[in-house]
Specification:
The complex is a heterodimer of chains A (about 160) and B (about 450). Chain A is an alpha+beta fold and about 160 residues long. Chain A has one helix at about 10-35; strands spanning about 40-45, 45-50, 60-65, 80-85, 90, 100, 105-115, 115-120, 125-130, 135-140, 145-150. Chain B folds into three domains: about 5-105, Rossmann fold; about 140-200, Dna Ligase, domain 1 (2-Layer Sandwich), CATH 3.30.1490; about 205-455, ATP-grasp fold, B domain (D-amino Acid Aminotransferase, Chain A, domain 1). Chain B has helices spanning about 10-25, 40-45, 65-70, 90-95, 105-110, 115-125, 140-150, 175-190, 250-265, 295-305, 310-315, 395-410, 420-425, 430-435, 440-445, 445-455, and strands spanning about 5, 25-35, 45-50, 75-80, 100, 155-160, 170, 195-200, 205-215, 220-235, 235-240, 270-280, 285-290, 335-340, 340-345, 350, 355, 355-360, 365-370, 375-380, 385-395, 410-415. Chain B has an eight-stranded antiparallel beta sheet with strand order 13-12-9-10-11-14-21-19, sandwiched between helices. In chain B, strands 3-2-1-4-5 form a five-stranded parallel beta sheet. In chain B, helix 1 (about 10-25) links the parallel strand 1 and strand 2. Classes of the chains: A alpha+beta (about 160), B alpha+beta (about 450).
């Protein structure tokens, strides 16, 4: 899966956080304004592509790499994103809005795969920091859906 | 015609279907597993969607994931390629239930041809010769002897409940048969709890010859000649060619004609392949039908100029066949070599790893269907097919010459492949003489071929 970056783990984590927090929203706004179907940026071996999904109006972020970013510090868990368990339509849970403390394994929403709900679960204890997909948005397997911040968690 | 097709497969066939989509002006979407993220099909698609982890059961074999991927990407049809879900009638039915088209035979046709025994009976009723056997189960020794006499020795004594060759015995005389029946019955009773036995004619040295058919839903059908796939290792095809040397012109014409007539009469639809065993006398026996596009379809494309995948898509879209039988022209000779990540010197052990260098052969009459590129990582999760080298020549010696030259151009560095084995095979006496039979490679072993090449 690696496509050439040799950054140290803390660098990788930092870049990933920046991509999630700054780059994706900025690109999403630009994509919205442009009327284009797709936008892609490449930088330092990273690739971020945004594409309007077929059904919902919201743009669908597709990170060049997903899953298992390296830990930010020795104390942090290996992953800070809850990933999509399948391909289908995402619905975030009303019980776990941004700011809510969650435990490892808690349901943060579900993905509807042909009528079967597959749970999106918290990868570790922490606080829901950001929900990356809109209700009803089409998502793919392994897509990052919810950022769970371990720093402010009750772990 | 379809607007957008989900390609639910990987490797070279995903690329092949993608190319057919481009030719027909259809937007291709590629469904991929996590292990196939960095592949050519994903890069070349209009859209790519990850459907699951590397494990095929949760990605390429997951009907729900594949259909859901087609729905969320706005596709109107699914191309299953070969293997995986390509002949799964339940998947085809579910696909239709979600308002999508399965590119292949309609679900009811797939269901009709799902059972091997049922298909043999169905096509036999429509005039195809099948391997001669006893009428039902053997009642007792006298019945067995009478049936064996009628079929002609040698015969194969088979337990009804077995499968995959388990518990079978070949007998050459009446005396051997009497002894074998007692043993076979007690073995079958112990192994399967059922001691019913039946007889089938034993075809000792046989060629595997198959007929490519294309049938639309209006009952128009054509055959596109035959392919000889007698170079096999443990029932896996290694080399395919057309025409077959096992048939003279008269028998070839009869085989092709009978095959297309019976399959149309039995209500088949889509591209398909009827497989036959051909014995030393040139007599042919139907064994099974493949309701999909096959790995070796380019052999037929090279001789006919017909794009079989495009035809398959058109037929699934409900279009009538655009070609009549009299328009089918089969020229020259074509050979396909399956290039596998396998170590022929060590029992064809499958290989995985980084392709450090990849250089494809070229020139007139040379076609390389492959998903390889330098830097591609061959994953360990799927089959070992790296690509197919297909050559065409005006006659067989010319095709073999081109195959040799193309093999010398082909470079796959970084992992062990069966390229050296193909080199040896193309110089071997049985291949050159066209006398290769389906059990030869297993009987003689790869080492004999490799030794001859090195010596």
């Amino acid at each position: 899966m690696s496509d050439g970056t040799t950054g140290r783990p803390d660098e990788t984590s930092h870049v990933l956080a920046r991509v999630a927090d700054e780059v994706v929203p900025a690109l999403a706004a630009r994509l919205e304004a442009s009327g284009l179907g797709e936008l892609e940026i490449r930088h330092d071996g990273w690739r971020v592509r945004l594409r309007r999904s077929a059904l919902p109006a919201a743009p669908e972020p597709v990170a060049g790499r997903t899953a298992d970013p390296a830990p930010g510090s020795p104390a942090a868990p290996a992953r800070r994103h809850a990933l999509s368990p399948g391909v289908g339509y995402f619905t975030p849970s009303e019980k776990t809005p941004v700011g809510r403390a969650v435990r490892n394994g808690d349901a943060l929403g579900w993905v509807d795969v042909l009528g079967v709900r597959q749970e999106v679960v918290a990868p570790h204890d922490g606080t829901v920091a950001r929900i990356l997909a809109e209700p009803g948005q089409a998502v793919e397997y392994g897509q990052e859906l919810v950022v769970v911040d371990p720093a402010r968690g009750n772990a | 015609m379809f607007q957008r097709i989900l390609i639910a497969n990987r490797g070279e066939i995903a690329l092949r279907v993608l190319r057919a989509c481009r030719r027909l002006g259809i937007s291709p979407v590629v469904a991929y597993s996590e292990a196939d993220r960095d592949t050519r099909a994903v890069q070349l698609a209009d859209e790519a969607i990850c459907i699951g982890p590397a494990e095929a059961r949760r990605s390429y074999l997951s009907a729900a994931s594949v259909i859901s991927a087609a729905l969320v990407t706005g596709c109107d049809a699914i191309h299953p390629g070969y293997g995986f879900l390509s002949e799964d009638d339940a998947f085809a039915e579910t696909t239709r239930a979600h308002g999508l088209t399965f590119i292949g035979p309609p679900p009811n046709v797939l269901e009709r041809f799902a059972s091997k025994a049922g298909t043999r009976a169905l096509l036999a009723a429509h005039g195809l010769p099948t391997v001669p056997g006893s009428q039902g189960m053997l009642r007792d020794d006298d019945h067995a002897l009478a049936e064996a006499e009628r079929i002609g020795y040698p015969v194969l004594l088979k337990p009804s409940a077995g499968g995959g060759g388990r518990g079978m015995r070949m007998v050459r005389t009446a005396r051997e048969l009497q002894q074998a029946i007692t043993i076979c019955r007690s073995e079958a009773r112990a192994a399967f709890g059922d001691d019913s036995l039946y007889l089938e004619k034993w075809l000792e040295e046989n060629h595997h010859v198959e007929v490519q058919v294309v049938v639309d839903r209006f009952g128009n059908g054509i055959h596109v000649g035959e392919r000889d796939c007698s170079v096999q290792r443990r029932h896996q095809k290694v080399v395919e060619e057309s025409p077959s040397l096992a048939l003279d012109d008269g028998r070839r014409a009869a085989l092709l004609e009978t095959a297309i007539r019976s399959v149309v009469a039995a209500g088949y639809e889509s591209v398909g392949t009827l497989e036959f065993l051909v014995d030393g006398n040139g007599d042919y026996y139907f064994i099974e039908i493949n309701c999909r596009i096959q790995v070796e379809h380019p052999v037929t494309e090279m001789r006919s100029g017909i794009d079989l995948v495009a035809e398959q898509i058109r037929i699934a879209a409900g279009e009538p066949l655009s070609i009549r039988q009299e328009d089918v022209r089969l020229d020259g000779h074509a050979i396909e070599l399956r290039i596998n990540a396998e170590d022929a010197a060590h029992d064809f052990r499958p290989q995985a790893g980084l392709v450090e260098r990849y250089l494809a052969p070229g020139g007139p009459g040379v076609r390389m269907d492959s998903h390889l590129f330098a830097g591609y990582e061959v994953p360990p999760y799927y089959d070992s097919l790296l690509g197919k080298l297909i050559v065409w020549g005006p006659d067989r010696p010319a095709a073999i010459e081109r195959a040799r030259a193309a093999l010398d151009e082909l470079v796959v560095d970084g992992l062990v492949t069966n390229i050296p084995f193909h080199r040896a095979l193309l110089r071997s006496e049985p291949f050159l003489a066209g006398s290769f039979t389906t059990n030869l490679l297993d009987r003689v072993g790869a080492a004999a071929f490799l030794a001859a090449e090195n010596g």
